[in-house]
Write a structure and sequence with these properties.
273 residues; Ribosomal Protein S5, domain 2; eight-stranded mixed β-sheet; four-stranded antiparallel β-sheet
Amino acid sequence: MQAFAPGSVTALFAPAGAGESMGASFAVEDGVVADVTPAEERPAEERPADERPADDSVVLVEGDPTDFEPVELALADLGVSARVDLAPEVPIGCGFGASGAATLATALAANEEFDLERSREELVGVAHCAEVEAGTGLGDVFVQEMGGLVVGDGENRWRFERDTPVEYARFGGIATEGMLADDDLMARIERAGVAALDALPEDPEMADVTREGWRFADETGLPTPEVRETVARAEDAGGVASMAMVGETVFAVGVEGELPDRTRVCADGAGLC
């Protein structure tokens, strides 16, 4: 069984406690396809006493076996042993929510493949808890489940129908786990994120979110010189640009042909293929 979840870009955020976050993010039309089939389980007599059948699960990215902790945690939570073939359309580790998309798509496909009869809300919760436990995200899966532009205050989320073209340039990744574990950085992020969220209008356009996102990024000190130069170039071309959270990636709206890659905001959320 196959499922697709769109990637997502977080423009600004702040931790809201208990593994939750507030901020502004948008889904993109490129994402991750997860193909889930039953794994080949070892006989019980060959299995250590504390090992569950779900420990036989195998995750592959573009055909290559890999450790993918949030996906593995989600399968364990669902109690299934699966082979998961992931086909990412977004760059991994560059601020496009690839781990969340992979985990959510896996949960949706596994539910169908193994006739688990879990609700969509339950599956989103499984994917979110796996991301938080793995330290790879705080709320990407909620945006990927809803689609569009999503603004949240830690308790409620508001979805805005947008299909704005977005250009981007990526230079490398930033380890989300290390960032989330840096108390000083997270304190700066909380202050800047709350202020940026408060500054958004009630019905924000992508330009509003991008503009406040750059103010947020600048105050956190996360942008590298290459990111700053690229943002300035996009702004000189008449657009609005910022940094994806969290990756060494610049995204821009209101430009055409200025940055090397192009996508658009995706109105549809995750689903079966």
